[in-house]
Amino acid sequence: MKSDFAAAHLHLDRACHYLRGDDETSRAALAALDLVIDAVAAAQHARPVAEVLPFPRRANGGLPPLAS
């Protein structure tokens, strides 16, 4: 099962909205949520590692001719 990072981001943003208090616990929770939101956003927009394919070379070491 794949994670739905967009939905997680939405719910975390909503949680921040509900933590409007000016007390230390609310501020600490908001700071922690900010870290989690950053991690979710990074995971949401991460690209898979790509495999680099070698470019074909001619036997004599030169590059193949360009198509005309």
List the defining traits of the structure above:
2 helices; mainly alpha; 68 residues; rod-shaped
Describe this structure in words.
There is one protein chain. Helix content is 51%, strand content 0%. With 68 residues, it is an all-alpha fold. The chain has a domain of 40 residues. Helix 1 packs antiparallel against helix 2. The chain is rod-shaped and about 75 Å long. The two termini are 47 Å apart. The model has no long low-confidence stretch (mean pLDDT 87).
- Give me the number of helical elements: 2
Q: How many beta-strand segments?
A: 0
Helix proportion range: 40-55%
Strand and helix order: HH
Outline type: rod-shaped
Beta percentage is: under 5%
Mean pLDDT: 87
Radius of gyration over all CA atoms, rounded: 24 Å
Low-confidence stretches: none
Profile the largest sheet. Answer: none
**Termini gap:** 47 Å
Helix-strand category? mainly alpha
List the helices and strands and how they pair.
Blueprint: H1 5-18, H2 24-44
Helix pairs in contact: 1-2
Summarize this entry quickly.
Helices cover 51% and strands 0% of the residues.
